[in-house]
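Blinded run. Sample ID left blank on purpose so nobody reads anything into the name before looking at the predicted structure. Input follows.
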Amino acid sequence: MRLSPAARWLLRGAMALGLAFVYVPLIVVLVNSFNLDRTFAWPPPGWTTEWWARAWDSAGARSALWTSVKAGVGATAVALALGSMIAFAVQRYRFFGREALSLLVVLPIALPGIVTGIALDTAFRSVVEPLGVGKGLLSVVIGHATFCVVVVYNNVLARLRRTGASFEEASADLGARPGQTFRYVTFPLLRSALFAGGLLAFALSFDEIIVTTFTAGAGVQTLPLWIFDNLFRPNQAPVINVVAAVLIVASVVPIYFAQRISADTATASRL
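Blinded prediction complete.
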């Protein structure tokens, strides 16, 4: 379909407006993390790295950052294990309820976070806590894994559909045992998909706040929760901008590399 020059310029303007609406506020947060004025006067009267030093010296921010990293790594590990196994089952085998299972795996990421949080909170209070296991970092990991597993599942499933089973069948025909086939054939084919899915899962877990609010126990505070708790404290406002800037970078970098890995792999598969 050919568009007129006016239509092309109109589409470009709409795209630029949409991107500006999303990314200009993020740029303002990054700039304000170096703003000399504590009230974030605009344009900034000067520049300073004092707020970055204060954020680094904040024991609460460092502790929350470490908690977020542990929760993200744990949720990513669970998502990699469960997501890849379910993808193999759905793609490689035919069984009753296969499509229903695929829907149930994808559904958590489509549900509102508050619905997932309430459901998990109810499950922990009615099933887990009576067994003597209270909320803590483990409950946060489980809560995050419910939606992190989706991105791993989708990445692995797409790769399995693209590659098919011919390489594995050829390996078996040549006498390789199942373990050898997985090690030398299947895993190398899936490695980039697993890596990209893991990066996306970690990014989702790292900046999650709604589900974390319902699943975190006493004394467990991730970085997004720390930001929210200190957001309206005047003395913490400059530090909040620094932590938010770090959170933006920590979320963008994994997604960027995951996108590059997926794009490079897709190009290589077409060649």
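Unblinding after everyone has recorded impressions. The domain at 65-270 is CATH 1.10.3720.10 (MetI-like fold).
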